[in-house]
Amino acid sequence: MGMNMETKLRDFHQARWDEPIIYELSREGERGILIPEVDEVMRYPDEGLEEIPQELRREAPPNLPEMGQMRVLRHYLRLSQENLGADLNIDIGQGTCTMKYSPKINDQLAANPKVSELHPFQSQETVQGLLKMMYETEQYLRGISGMDRFSLHPGGGSHAIFTIASIVRAWVDSRGESDKRDEIITTIFSHPSNAAASKLKGFKVITIYPGPDGRPDIEALKAAVSERTAALFITNPEDIGIYNSRIKEFTDIVHSVGGLCSYDQANLNGIMGLTRAREAGFDLCFYNLHKTFSSPHGCGGPGGGVVGVTEELAQFLPVPLVSFDETTGKYFLDYDVPNTIGKVKDFYGVVPVILRAYAWIRSLGEEGLKEAAKVALLNNNYIFKKILDIKGASAPYAEGELRMEQVRYSWEKLYKDTGVTTTDIQNRMFDFGVHYWTSHEPWIVPEPFTIEPTESYSKDELDEFIAILKHVANEAYTNPEIVKTAPHKSVIHHIDHDYLDDPEKWAITWRAYKKKYTGYFEPRKNRDE
Amino acid sequence: MKKIGLIVNPIAGMGGAVGLKGTDGIHTLEKALALGATPRAPQRAREALEALFKCINVDSLFYTCPQDMGENLLKVYTKNYKLAFPKFKGELSSSLDTIEAAKLMKECKVDLILFAGGDGTARDICSAIGLDVPVLGIPSGVKIHSAAFAVTPAKAGELAAKFLSGKVRNLKESEVMDIDEEAYRAGEVKARLFGYLLIPWERNKIQSRKAGTMPSERAIQQAIAEEVVTNMEEGTLYLLGPGTTVKAIGDRLGIEKSLLGVDGVLDGSLIGKDLIEKEILKLVEQHKKVKVIVSPIGGQGYILGRGNLQLSPRVIRRVAKENIIIVSTPQKIASLHGSPLLVDSGDANLDKSMRGVYPVITGYRERMMYRVEA
Ligand SMILES: Cc1ncc(COP(=O)(O)O)c(C=O)c1O
After folding, report:
1. C-beta atoms surrounding A249 within 10 Å
2. pLDDT of residue B21
3. What was the pLDDT predicted at A369?
């Protein structure tokens, strides 16, 4: 029996393997492949070794897990079953992340040996196809944004923001204003990396709150700008899904004091092909290829955060760019960028991600890109209306206005009525085979959740997600205990976050784990004795 | 074995309904009842205990007070309790009993004191034990300005259970506010900052791991202090308002800043402690450049008129609004959920002129632009 098509609720249960960490499964001497013996000469390629400083050379071989092939396969398949990935669930609850479908054919292109077997040191003569693909991708991005030049190098959105902050830093320094222009303005609903990267580059950060209509307060911007303003780092629409139609006034205000404007367009999905950074007055912008341009998110990377700039700022872009030589008719890696901030990524950048985005853009064409944005808007406003009908849910700010590609909702009323929080609801959603993400801290919208349906999902799937949400909200009123004690059908019922919050306890590698929990490093000194 | 104190102020919340205010010292259940009020605190405390006993999974021993100050409610749920004292000081319970109970519970080394009451009850407990014992309020008063209370009685019960079983470990210094009885102007009653209680504080169970771990409140206060102190100017008189955020600036300077008062600082040294309005005005007259450092007090976001009445309209007019430095942790601003910071100096015209967007120092080299309304 399949799911109940009336209620649209599945009798779901997640796999639970209780799978150990791979190091715990390791058995000394076990091998996946037995490599043939090599002769003496090959075994000790000493040449060049002496150039590596003594303290950097390993004394013992690396401690890698030792396992047979089949066990490795099972280990990772089990872990994958303990996940709710984008290919399994109706992944519209991960608002701000633009979880759209990444066509499998594009994965096949990227996995094709013609791409995957390329060597980064191969002569440029022999990778003209790849360089052409990158060059053309840049042309498309220029068309979409109105910017003059792009770097395809950054490996993600935050990396792109860091690149942009580095460019702003280089620009300020090149004008001899290092001591004067030391402030970057951002907004509270912009991605936190905008503030973080600015700080990292030595800027002070000024954050603007929204006015009652949900748009950044323009009076606050006026009060914030001065001759100290290096740049504005802003998103539009912001994470709450409300479009700021006065965006050009914002950039004008910043330009009037001589600052730059950077547009965080990690998520372009609501306005792709419909409005451009250039016309909104921006000097820099970036797109996440792993969001809007359909490359998979890759579980935290590698992704693609392509950075576009105006002619004036192209001199600061990271190297190399991909250029075309008219006289030879060849594409080449172009290091001739006079005031480059240097390298931000090895070699060519994340080629498979760029290739997938290229294929996606090519397959949709201009009309297709615009259509994708419009369908994303339509899907979102459909869901928006349905969610507002759910008892206990609301969408703060700009009442009565439509939203862009996502919405930040609030369970404030549900919480006041029932004591059930957004994290309780989140935990209960797992029991039906979907999930949602609450929202970035700080929670200015009380008990928040952010839903972004993108253009990829059918009406049936949107209805299924809404049915689950509605069911859980209803449970909060009728049977709050079941919600508060959720999840009941997931892999793990409660994660103790102390391990993530406490520097004494966290361990992001096996080594760190051993060190903190079993004193690995103390005995190690004596190990060889 | 965990030890829990339970104090119920049986008449909390009734005063409002029957116009019994300023009942300090009288505190009589009978009188309120005679006026037709129904007791609210016992019901609220019951809701909290209901939730507590549903969630608690550790052995526990309760300490409570006789009759309607706790025992009557508690005995429905457990036999594992002791009385802090056998009978009330007077014929009926009074705030003296609350204070006594809190002191005795501290001596018994309870892990947490759960109390049902309002701001007055919080104040009594604060005066008895200060920050020595974690405390959690079951909101039962008519008006609650203090931050020492859970959002609902059931939440109080749940949070208490989690704290006792070790699931929640964080503690936070939270403001205790009270009606200011030495009201600044005759006839006007205002909430003022009375002190701080230590309350358990739950972080969200599953937080977005998209954003990193938040530093502690204390660390952020230190960052704010660093920012303020770095930018302090020589020869300028700084008037440091009340609260823990401003106190952290005093700590950074290495001076003994009063927690609840307004202190004067010049070139890094304390030149006046816990000043009253007159003293402040005198200091202001003596200095050409004066800046005032304030922090929003409590949940409502008042930067003037709550807890710092010494910074009177006369003082503020003299200092001028561009010399007001507002400091706040970002969490405190976020907890306003978008509503503005407020001023209520007692002078409506001044308040009106204070409206506008202000920079709020929220960290080291960090500020927010935030609206102030009257
Ligand atoms: C608006 C915005 N900017 C920046 C980022 C950061 O992108 P990434 O996760 O690739 O670092 C995100 C991702 O969540 C985002 O939504």
Report:
1. 14
2. 45
3. 97
Count of A–B CB contacts within 8 Å? 102
Taking the C-alpha atoms of residue B115 and residue B293, their distance in angstroms, rounded to an integer, is 34
Rounded Cα gap, residues B301 and B145, in angstroms: 11
In sequence order, the 6+-apart residues with CB closer than 8 A to the CB of B33 are: B14, B39
Q: What is the DSSP string of A7-37?
A: TTB---------PPPHHHH--TT--SS-PPP
Cβ of B357 within 8 Å of Cβ of A219? The answer is yes
Contact B200, B134 (CB under 8 A): yes
E-strand spans in B52-190? 60-64, 81-83, 112-117, 135-139, 171-179
pLDDT score of A1:
66
Q: Considering all CA atoms of chain A, what is the largest pairwise distance in Å, rounded to the nearest integer? A: 77
Cα(B116) to centroid of ligand 1, in Å? 45
Q: How confident is the model at residue B152, as a pLDDT?
A: 78
Q: Per-10-residue mean pLDDT for chain A, 529 residues long?
A: 87 93 93 84 67 85 93 96 90 93 94 94 95 98 98 96 98 96 96 95 96 92 97 95 96 98 97 96 97 84 92 98 97 97 94 96 97 98 98 94 96 93 94 91 90 96 97 97 94 75 80 77 40
Closest-CA residue of B relative to A449 is B208
CATH superfamily of A367-484: Aspartate Aminotransferase, domain 1 (3.90.1150.10)
- pLDDT surpassing 50 at residue B24: no
Averaged over B242-270, what is the pLDDT? 94
The yes-or-no verdict on residue B107 having pLDDT over 50 is yes
The more confidently predicted of residues B308 and A141 is A141
Question: Can you give the C-alpha Rg of chain A in angstroms?
Answer: 26
User: How far is the C-alpha of A426 from the C-alpha of A439, rounded, in Å?
Assistant: 11
A2 HSE (CA, 13 A, CB side): 3
Q: How far, in Å, from the CA of A97 to the mean position of ligand 1?
A: 7
Distance from residue B155's CA to the centre of ligand 1 (Å):
34
**Contacting residues for A428 by C-beta, under 8 A, at least 6 apart:** A472, A475, A482, A483, A486, A487
Burial class of residue A496 (count of CB atoms within 10 Å of its CB; 0-12, 13-18, 19+): exposed
Q: Please state the domain extents for chain A.
A: 22-81, 367-484, 495-529
Answer for the pair B32, B18: CB distance below 8 angstroms, yes or no: yes
pLDDT at B81 over 50: yes
The rounded distance, in Å, linking the Cα atoms of A396 and A412 is: 10
Question: How far is the C-alpha of B159 from the C-alpha of B114, rounded, in Å?
Answer: 10
Q: At what angle do helices B95-107 and B119-129 cross, to 10 degrees?
A: 40
- Residue B139: what pLDDT? 85
d(CA A163, CA A159): 6
d(CA A183, CA A231): 7
**Contact assessment for residue B234 and residue B267, using Cβ atoms and an 8 Å cutoff:** yes
Is B2-200 assigned to CATH 1.10.10? no
Tokens of A520: 């690995």
Structure tokens at B374: 């009257």
For B148, left (φ over 0), alpha (ψ -120 to 50), or beta? alpha
Tokens representing B136?
């959690």
Of B203, B208, B331, the CB nearest to A437: B208
Q: What is the DSSP letter of B149?
A: B
Q: Does the beta carbon of A296 sit less than 6 angstroms from any atom of ligand 1?
A: no
Domain extents in chain B: 2-200, 215-373
Closest residue of B to A426, CA-based?
A: B206
Q: Which of A350-354, B70-74, B258-262 has the highest mean pLDDT?
A: A350-354
